[in-house]
């Protein structure tokens, strides 16, 4: 089963992002998602490899966003794909049955399609407003997350504007867990922020 807290790396990658990953893992993060949006493929692969090594040492799962080729090359545990990435069924065919495949959904119809295509889990959102990613549609709120969670039998990971204070709302909506960028990467103390999120998940 996929972990309940997905710590997503800052899209810029680099040393600061790696430091945040180290801190998150020291705080107990069970899943790290490598999400890079800049740099050459070689730089992105090198970053993903470093994160995989850190995750292995900590016993955490590592998922690469967008790119199944980088995920396989880095020996990551899984790949997360959205609407502009390779389709879930293609990622599944390329990566095989033991690779974790996640897909992005914001409504029950899309969610059911992704599960039928072979998704192991769904990233669902944006749950709340966020300034981390431009061009997102309106937040779906806990009710939107609940509609998706009720429609599928795979774990739902809520994303977008997530904080420890909001975790109980999402868990009550049926989310298995949450994915965060700024709540950990933007925190003054990313290890403490990770512990706070995990405590909120454990309590709800
Ligand atoms: C857990 C999780 N859910 C959703 C997303 C968003 O992925 P995607 O739609 O591919 O958008 P980008 O992250 O590529 O901007 C995610 N990364 N993780
Ligand atoms: C990549 C992505 N997809 C939907 S919301 C989001 C960004 C979430 O970032 P934050 O946790 O800082 O709100
Ligand atoms: Mg993507």
UniProtKB/TrEMBL annotation:
GO terms for biological process: thiamine biosynthetic process; thiamine diphosphate biosynthetic process. The keyword Ubl conjugation does not apply. Its cofactor is Mg(2+). Keywords: Magnesium, Metal-binding, Thiamine biosynthesis, Transferase. It comes from the Bacteria. 4-amino-2-methyl-5-(diphosphooxymethyl)pyrimidine binds at residues 33-37, 65, 104, 133. Pathway: Cofactor biosynthesis; thiamine diphosphate biosynthesis; thiamine phosphate from 4-amino-2-methyl-5-diphosphomethylpyrimidine and 4-methyl-5-(2-phosphoethyl)-thiazole: step 1/1. SUPFAM superfamilies: Thiamin phosphate synthase. Pfam families: TMP-TENI (PF02581). It catalyses: 4-methyl-5-(2-phosphooxyethyl)-thiazole + 4-amino-2-methyl-5-(diphosphooxymethyl)pyrimidine + H(+) = thiamine phosphate + diphosphate; 2-(2-carboxy-4-methylthiazol-5-yl)ethyl phosphate + 4-amino-2-methyl-5-(diphosphooxymethyl)pyrimidine + 2 H(+) = thiamine phosphate + CO2 + diphosphate; 2-[(2R,5Z)-2-carboxy-4-methylthiazol-5(2H)-ylidene]ethyl phosphate + 4-amino-2-methyl-5-(diphosphooxymethyl)pyrimidine + 2 H(+) = thiamine phosphate + CO2 + diphosphate. Mg(2+) binds at residues 66, 85. This is Thiamine-phosphate synthase.
């Amino acid at each position: 089963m996929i972990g309940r807290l997905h710590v997503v790396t800052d899209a810029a990658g680099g040393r600061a992002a790696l430091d945040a990953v180290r801190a998150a893992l020291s705080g107990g993060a069970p899943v790290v998602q490598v999400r890079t949006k800049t740099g050459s493929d070689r730089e992105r692969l090198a970053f993903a490899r470093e994160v995989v090594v850190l995750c292995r040492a900590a016993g955490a799962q590592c998922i690469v966003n967008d790119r199944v080729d980088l995920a396989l090359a880095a020996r990551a545990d899984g790949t997360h794909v959205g609407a502009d990435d390779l389709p879930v069924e293609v990622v599944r065919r390329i990566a095989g049955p033991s690779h974790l495949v996640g897909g992005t959904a914001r409504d029950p119809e899309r969610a059911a399609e992704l599960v039928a295509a072979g998704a192991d889990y769904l990233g669902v959102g944006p749950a709340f407003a966020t300034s981390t990613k431009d061009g997102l549609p309106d937040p779906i709120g806990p009710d939107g997350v609940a509609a998706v969670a009720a429609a599928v039998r795979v774990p739902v990971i809520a994303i977008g504007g997530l904080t420890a204070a909001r975790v109980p709302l999402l868990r009550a909506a049926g989310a298995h867990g949450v994915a965060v960028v700024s709540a950990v990467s933007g925190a003054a103390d990313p290890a403490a922020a990770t512990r706070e999120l995990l405590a909120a998940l454990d309590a709800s």
